[in-house]
C-alpha cells in the first residue's frame, strides 16, 4: 500500500498546488475550486475518453460475430480463446483498450481523494514540500538588522498560507471537511452515477450492475467528506453531458451514412434534391422505429 501511495504522491502534490493556486488567485471558495479542479482533470482526460468511446463502439460492432464464435467453440475453451484472439487481431481490436482509460484514471482519482480528503491539510502538505528553515534563515540574515524581534518562520508561513483557519470550507449548505448531514450529495452521486452508467451500458447482462453499483457506492460514500462527493457528482455530471454529446455525434454520423447508402441505392450515385433527402430521412426514421 505504501508503494502505491509513493507512486501517487507526485500527482497528489501537483493537484494540491493547483487547489492552492485556484483558491489564492481565482476564487476563495473550496467548493468552486473543487468543481474547477474536476473540470480541469476531465479536460486533460478527454483524449483517453475518446479512445475509450471508440474501443467500446468497435467492441459493440463485432459482438454478433463474437457470439457466433462462442457458440461454435463452446465445448473447447482453449480453441475459443485462440480463435477469439485471432478474431481481435484480424479486426484490429484490443479488448483491453476500453478498460485502459479507466485504469489510467484510477491514480488520478486516488490522488484527488487524498488531495481533497481534508482541505485544511492541503496547505500543510504543500508547505511541507519547501525547506522552510533554509528559506527563513536566508530572510533572517538579510533582515535581522531591521526586525530583530520578528518570528520569521511563523511570519513566512502566514504570508504564504494565511493560516488554515482563514480558509473558507463552506459551500452552499455543506462543510467540505465533513459528511453531508442531509445526504443530498449522496443521493445526487448515486443518481448521476446511475444515469452515467446507463448511457454507456449496452449489454442487457450488465443491468444488475447498473442498479447495484450506485446503491453500493451510495452506502459507502455517506461517511465521506462532502468535498470528495462534490468532486464525484461533478465528474458524473460531466460524463453524462460528454456521453450525450458523443451519442448525438455518433447518431448524426450514422444517419449521414445511412442516407448516403440509401441515396446510392435509389439513384445509382447521382445527386439528390433536398426534397428527396427529406423523404429518405423520413423513411429511415420509420425503419428505426420498427426496429425498436
Q: Tell how many strands the DSSP assignment holds.
A: 2
Radius of gyration: 27 Å
Shape: globular
Given as residue ranges, the uncertain stretches (5+ residues, pLDDT < 50) are 123-165
Intertermini distance: 49 Å
- What strand line-up does the widest sheet have? 1-2
* Percent of residues in helices: over 70%
Question: How does this structure look, described?
Answer:
This protein is mostly helical and 292 residues long. The protein has two domains: 1-65 and 93-171, no CATH class; 178-292. 75% of the residues lie in helices and 1% in strands. The protein has twelve helices and two strands; from the N terminus they run H-H-H-H-H-H-H-H-E-E-H-H-H-H. The protein has helices spanning 2-25, 30-44, 46-72, 77-90, 100-115, 119-127, 132-143, 152-161, 184-200, 207-221, 226-267, 274-291, and strands spanning 170-171, 174-175. A two-stranded antiparallel ribbon has the order 1-2. A hairpin with a 2-residue loop joins strand 1 and strand 2 (174-175). The longest helix is centred in the C-terminal third of the chain and has 42 residues, at 226-267. It is globular and about 65 Å long.
How would you sum up this structure in a few lines?
The chain is mainly alpha-helical and 292 residues long. It is 75% helix and 1% strand. The longest helix is centred in the C-terminal third of the chain and has 42 residues.
Amino acid at each position: 500500500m505504501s508503494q502505491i501511495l509513493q507512486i501517487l504522491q507526485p500527482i497528489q502534490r501537483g493537484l494540491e498546488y493547483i487547489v492552492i493556486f485556484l483558491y489564492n488567485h481565482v476564487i476563495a471558495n473550496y467548493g468552486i475550486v473543487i468543481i474547477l479542479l474536476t473540470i480541469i482533470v476531465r479536460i486533460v482526460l478527454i483524449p483517453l475518453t475518446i479512445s475509450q468511446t471508440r474501443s467500446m463502439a468497435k467492441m459493440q460492432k463485432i459482438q454478433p460475430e463474437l457470439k457466433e464464435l462462442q457458440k461454435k467453440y463452446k465445448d473447447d475453451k482453449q480453441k475459443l480463446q485462440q480463435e477469439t484472439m485471432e478474431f481481435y487481431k484480424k479486426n484490429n481490436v484490443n479488448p483491453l483498450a476500453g478498460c485502459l482509460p479507466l485504469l489510467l484514471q484510477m491514480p488520478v482519482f486516488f490522488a484527488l481523494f487524498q488531495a481533497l480528503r481534508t482541505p485544511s491539510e492541503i496547505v500543510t502538505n504543500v508547505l511541507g514540500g519547501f525547506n522552510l528553515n533554509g528559506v527563513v534563515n536566508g530572510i533572517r540574515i538579510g533582515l535581522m538588522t531591521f526586525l530583530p524581534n520578528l518570528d520569521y518562520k511563523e511570519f513566512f508561513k502566514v504570508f504564504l498560507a494565511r493560516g488554515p483557519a482563514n480558509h473558507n470550507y463552506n459551500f452552499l449548505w455543506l462543510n467540505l471537511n465533513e459528511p453531508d448531514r442531509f445526504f443530498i450529495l449522496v443521493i445526487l452521486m448515486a443518481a448521476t452515477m446511475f444515469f452515467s452508467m446507463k448511457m454507456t451500458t449496452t449489454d442487457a447482462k450488465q443491468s444488475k450492475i447498473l442498479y447495484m453499483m450506485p446503491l453500493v457506492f451510495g452506502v459507502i460514500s455517506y461517511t465521506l467528506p462532502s468535498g470528495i462527493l462534490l468532486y464525484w457528482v461533478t465528474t458524473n455530471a460531466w460524463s453524462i453531458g460528454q456521453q450525450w454529446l458523443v451519442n448525438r455525434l455518433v447518431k448524426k454520423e450514422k444517419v449521414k451514412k445511412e442516407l448516403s447508402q440509401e441515396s446510392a441505392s435509389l439513384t445509382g450515385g447521382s445527386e439528390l434534391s433536398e426534397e428527396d433527402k427529406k423523404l429518405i430521412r423520413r423513411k429511415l426514421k420509420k425503419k428505426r422505429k420498427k426496429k425498436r
